[in-house]
């Protein structure tokens, strides 16, 4: 019987209290009829078979009754129902959308075998923590280290795909043959290249390129395509999820490292990936690589001076800035969830007081507290489910807006979606939210004595309930202040960034990429002739003011770092003599609006038969010859002595948020054949007259380029001002989201104060009437109500400032030129919240002032 009585606890409390004794009696009679050695076991099975299905049926029946009653009750208050659903949708929707983004960027497993064991290796110096690796150092890392079971490398080498209609540039990675095996990825079709056939011209397609360029033709395997004018055999097609080293890659070709590639340790162009041996941690691998780096520095003191290896998990290759952007949004969404729950709890507390008389009658008629709590929680969970559904639909619609926050370097195809894990998270949010704003008010509403509730009238407001609602308002205001501080600091940062001079004029400039294949344009003279023929015709187009070729665009090509040395200067520490090197044709500076401060522009006569010259930036002069005339002075760069013939303004090539190295611009005709191939000019820039849209020139430029070389594609056609705008695009997206959430939070907090004070005035109507009858001034009544709202706001603001400052310290890496304790931002957030609280308090205060003493007294 003890087991059976324990099973009866599965029934609802009311059912058990009414029928428990009778059920025990019936079961005892049936158990007495069983005998034998297995009677106890048979009784236990019979008890389970009797109680479990009947208990579930009892709960289902009560649930059905609760749902029907909840629907009827909520229909009678449509305003309350809609408000609760919308507030719940806001909390669930914002968190579902942001969690989807955070899951995609920070959590979702990468499409590789055992991705936790994959790491990226970079060369690091005191000045730069992430540099590509030289083939020689990569070889020695693999030989001398004991932490890795394998190592592979890639380098980005776009190729021109021709012979299939319009020529097009393919974003291609050259990879050492062991890459796919190291990552543990098999092709969806065909095979991948091997070490034995690394010298054979072949290509492996991405799923996207296979579908877009080859029409998903299954017979593409073995087909010969022309890449950079040479035949390549298609070996295989990778799965749709495989994008390495980043999402833009469309194809892979073998990278065969020959003995001559290992001669120069300063020739750094490889991105190295390695797999940790089983049981080896990243911390242990870092210690191991420190040992290897020190050994190589002793062996090669000149090229490897102060050079170390950086070991990072491949998942955390996402930069700190993008991670903080996502985490800041997660914090904002969590604030919205807390605020929504607090607001909903306040609404349900008010509803519980409003329904106090009804609940007292039901309790007096025999309804137990469990039954009342269950009814109220059913209502709250039903509303949470409705709000959750609306929120998930809103999150699905809003996810595309978050695409700007996905880092470009993430080796994942596609974008953030609402998969089963995300939907499970949303369901958990619904349950948590439903209980959070439903259980507490339900317990509070059901705990009142029926005699007290029936005898106290409709105007009794328990002090405890009032304190709870006031505390919830403080929480709402504090959450609003946190969001306002975060968004305010980011707004100030954005304004500072937008006020910075990039060093060039981006308006009315068209940028077109025309990558010249190494095998076809390895001879310098042929490249120079191509530039000259294209530029001559482009400059003759109507509306074109100037045009030029350059190695890479500012804020697009951020590297190109070399060491420049000046004779007679003491040896520089690592990074102190670093410069950015670019080759540019004449008119480049006038095309980009880079001011020429002294000297002359690069000229067509600057060939290998003439003295080697350079145009340098002002920061280069300040570093080496401050206060002196730089023209005619010489320095050594890229193994050649060069004479300064011009000085131009500094350009923020690394973007608005990072410090850029001094820049050196060289004439492209002074490069030896097949030398510095990665620095050959490939970006055509065209400045147009003011009324002309630069993009309107694209068809004419395409005809000109094809007339010069029919197999040369035009790639990455864009306006230069779009590149500058994209520099702050992730910030702008996050800022809009944060600002919208902050304003929404402020609105909810203001409505919360308004609702609390309106309810308070209605509950204190008799007291206010007595005050008026005793001679209280209207201004005194208004001040009384306003003061309560302002006091709550001040308490919330004080807490919000503290937590807002802590949040600002955590997102310090996102702040440029603004400190976390910025008084203007903190003061503006406090004043805005205070103004909102005052606005929310005004109408209840005016209502209180209009209370008629006689009407208030008669109503009681």
State the main characteristics.
about 850 residues; globular; 12-stranded mixed beta sheet; 23 strands; alpha+beta
Your description of this structure?
- It is a single chain.
- The chain is of the alpha+beta class.
- Helix content is 51%, strand content 14%.
- The protein is built from 25 helices and 23 strands.
- Strands 1, 2, 3, 4, 5, 6, 7, 8, 9, 10, 11 and 12 form a 12-stranded mixed beta sheet that branches. Strands 15, 16, 17, 18, 19, 20 and 21 form a 7-stranded mixed beta sheet that branches. The protein has a 4-stranded antiparallel beta sheet with strand order 14-22-13-23.
- Helix 9 packs parallel to helix 21 (729-763) and helix 22 (765-773) packs across helix 25.
- The radius of gyration is 36 Å and the shape is globular.
- The two termini are 56 Å apart.
- The model has no long low-confidence stretch (mean pLDDT 84).
Strand content: 5-15%
Q: If you compute it from the alpha carbons, what radius of gyration comes out, rounded to the nearest whole angstrom?
A: 36 Å
Which range best describes the helical content: under 10%, 10-25%, 25-40%, 40-55%, 55-70% or over 70%? 40-55%
* Biggest sheet details: 12 strands, mixed
The first-to-last residue Cα distance is 56 Å
Structural class by sheet pairing and helices = alpha+beta
Enumerate how many helices there are, as a single number.
Answer: 25
